[in-house]
Amino acid sequence: MRKKILLLMCLFPLMSFAQQNWGAKFEQLGTTLPTPNEYRTGSGEPGPAYWQQKADYKIAVTLDDKNQKISGSETVTYTNNSPSTLKYIWVQLDQNVRKADNTGALTNGFGQLRDNTSSLGTSRAASMIDAGFDGGFKLEKVTDTNGKPLTYLINDTMMKITLPTPLKTGESFSFKTAWWYNINDRAQLGGRSGYEHFVEDDNYLYTIAQFYPRMAVYDDVNGWQHKQFLGSGEFALTFGDFEVSITVPSDHIVAATGTLQNPSDVLTKTELQRFEQAKKSFDKPVIITTQKEAEAKEKKRASTQSTWTFKAENVRDFAFASSRKFIWDAQAVKLKNNTPLAMSYYPKEGNPLWEKESTKAVVNTLISYSDMSIEYPYPKAISVHAASIGMEYPMICFNFGRPRPDGTYDDFITTNMVSVIVHEVGHNFFPMIVNSDERQWAWMDEGLNSFLEYRTMHEYYDYLPYTSNSPAAIVPYMKGSKDFMRPIMTNPEQSLQLGPEAYSKPSAALVVLRETVMGPELFDAAFKEYSERWAFKHPKPADFFRTMEDASGVDLDWFWKGWFYTTDNVEVDVSDVKWFKIKGENQQIEKTVNAQAGTLGNEQNADNPFYAKPQEIELTDSRVRGEYRSEIPNDAIRKRLAGKNLYQVTFKNTGGLITPLVIEWTYKDGTKEIEKIPAEIWRLSESQVSHIFAKDKEVASIMFDPNKELADVNTENNSFPRKNTQSAFDKAKEKGGN
Q: With b meaning 16 or more CB within 10 Å and e meaning fewer, what string describes 579-618?
């Protein structure tokens, strides 16, 4: 064995191991990922014994438009499909994040006031110091279906219900709750749901979510997921069926998750006729409630109420919006197997932009995401216009993007509005269908969704100035101080910059993975496989990582380690280039070759080695014949390679993040060539590598990452010779030289 090692060292004299430069960047994730088992396999797919719980809801709520209050009651039926016997269950009380003494309120005052501050914004003061708001669920009862009180304990935003008898595998348990709560003014207190008050016409627009006690997730990885809701980490939820009755003033229009069960009871004959027409309109939206009709209702107040009833199957949540201000339009979307309705609800303050763009964006999103992941399975997708918010729920989302008060808008307003609609409608796929745990892993829904948003915007809206979620867009964050960074694999409540760390950095990583590391064909097939494997299930990060590798045949552990587990960045320095030529065919063959030719640059041409004369090297046979009987065609090889230009380029990885090399060669005849080298070039030396490139033409310059596709944070050292260095050739010309 020792002789073979010595032989290999002789065969590769250009490879230097003077520096170890090893940080285990190419080692497998190994025990970093959970051990595969019968529930989740090593390939990343659900195992043969995979299980998940089910929670069905029958809910009745009333919206009090005079006092801005929600009151409701529900019956929840919880089915235990786990192999465990449960003595208690956990319920989320997310509205309790608005209670004055909840953990989020007591700990979210991150920041400080400057010594010279003479004022403090009222909304910040209200949210951080004294909201003056009586928030949180007011529970009136928790009972079994016969009305017998159950023992329960409220721990901040979570409630533990002790079961009368342990719940065995395959059994179900039903319980009832009744509650009410005050709806928050989002302009003052923010929030994922609440109301907006329109002072001009004294009307309200309600976007209502987290409005009912919701079952927490119990799964094979964590048991109960009962992390507190502190404000940033969103939700982990259980799939089930919903029947929800919503009582509102009779002049309100209601948008909600699920299919409307009683349209003839709540719509006018004209609205009902238009609604049916919309189901057959594939080329443009049909306006169901017009702006003129909505404006007429703004001036009145109905004295009666109507109840809108919706049903939804196999969804993880339910949300709704209600207002007398709503204009409503809808358009059918033709997918391969389904025909969902794309719908928009918006006040006159959203026009003319919303009538023009909203439903169009919903249609484009459903088509694009269905192509890239799974076909959209639900009967509709809704975009509701609400100020300064982007928030998602099954079949419905709340989106910002408002024209100026005079109705004008520009490309900037349009881009922001369209991209947030694409993003929030896209959340129907991640996490509403591919149901990741947002409370723990925000990137699994926000990052994957931001990546698909990026692709949809470039496919359908290349005429808009959209620049988000790309490798180039993440550079300002990546080059910032690591004291204010956390890895992607961080709980959102501990994230220091949630936008980059959960949204744009994961998206940029996936763009690099698709466009440069794997290629679109391999990536797209693997991503679709992940979507199909985990549709209507509960994936974890390891399931995504493993599926992408399993379905593509590409070892990506180095990629996940660098991009997702560290705060390293891409910073590659093209530090040195040496230029050699193979000597002509009459050169005698030697037994050895010395390729240590020194730098291309000499003292006269140190600024630009490409104006130097190349060092000639001899083509020799350094192979040991050993047991081979065949002849080596030395003359033919020498003739074929004579005159070749060899460029030995040294790359330094000063950012720490392993990356492929994308190189642009500019030749002296003015032509250019892009060459890609896989990231595995760093596997033997993670901080510096040298590589020899053979070229027929002579090279004028070299540039790393010419199209800014790798998120390199310092472009000043990407080119050779340096762009900001005047060459010796140019200096000589200035002095009158040749």
A: bbbbbeeeeeeeeeeeeeeeebbeeebebbbbbbebbebe
Q: Is 172 helix (H, G, I), strand (E, B) or coil?
A: strand
User: Residue 609 has what pLDDT?
Assistant: 63
Q: What is the Cα 21 distance to its own chain's centre?
A: 32
As beta bridge partners, residue 255 has 321
Burial class (CB in 10 A: 0-12, 13-18, 19+), 21: middle
> What is the chain's length?
738
Q: How many Å from the N-terminal Cα to the C-terminal Cα in the chain?
A: 57
Give the other-Cβ count within 10 Å of 288's Cβ: 25
CA–CA gap between residue 338 and residue 433 (Å, rounded): 16
* CATH 1.10.390.10 in the chain, residue ranges: 267-299+326-450, 467-567
In 37-188, beta strands by DSSP E: 54-64, 69-79, 86-92, 138-144, 152-155, 158-167, 172-182
Residue 643: left if φ>0, alpha if ψ -120 to 50, beta else—which one? Answer: left
CA distance 198 to 396: 22
Which DSSP string corresponds to 522-555? HHHHHHHHHHHHHTTB---HHHHHHHHHHTTT--
pLDDT tens, residue by residue, 157-176: 999 999 999 999 999 999 99
Q: What is the pLDDT of residues 19-31, one digit of tens each?
A: 456 678 999 998 8
Architecture label for domain 267-299+326-450: Orthogonal Bundle (1.10)
**Closest Cα to residue 193, out of 171, 173, 211?**
211
For residues 486 and 494, what is the distance between their CA atoms, to the nearest angstrom? 8
Residues of the chain with CATH 2.60.40.1730: 51-108+123-261+309-322
CATH number for the domain running over 51-108+123-261+309-322? 2.60.40.1730
Sole residue written with tokens 């490879």: 15
Residue 649 has pLDDT above 90, yes or no: yes
- With a CB cutoff of 8 Å and minimum separation 6, the contacts of 181 are 69, 70, 95, 98, 135, 136, 137, 138, 211
Grouping H, G, I as helix, E, B as strand and the rest as coil, residue 368 is helix
- For residues 86 and 107, what is the distance between their CA atoms, to the nearest angstrom? 32
What count of other Cβ atoms lies within 10 Å of the Cβ of residue 134? 11
Distance of alpha carbon 192 from alpha carbon 209, whole angstroms: 7
Q: Is the dihedral of CA 554, 557, 561, 562 positive or negative?
A: negative
Query: 207 with 398: CB under 8 angstroms?
Result: yes
Predicted TM-score (pTM) of the model is 0.91
Q: Which amino acid is at 260?
A: L
Classify 72 as helix, strand or coil: strand
Amino acid identity, residue 76?
Answer: V
Helix, strand and coil in the chain, % to nearest 5? 30, 30, 45
DSSP 182: E
Cα angle for residues 111, 114, 120 (degrees, 5° grid): 80
The DSSP letter of residue 116 is: T
Q: How far is CA 417 from CA 96, 116, 457, 472, in A?
A: 30, 36, 12, 22
Within 13 A of 201's CA, how many CA atoms are on the CB side?
A: 18
Name the residue type at position 644.
K
Beta-carbon contacts of residue 269 (< 8 Å; ≥ 6 apart): none
CATH class of 467-567: mainly alpha
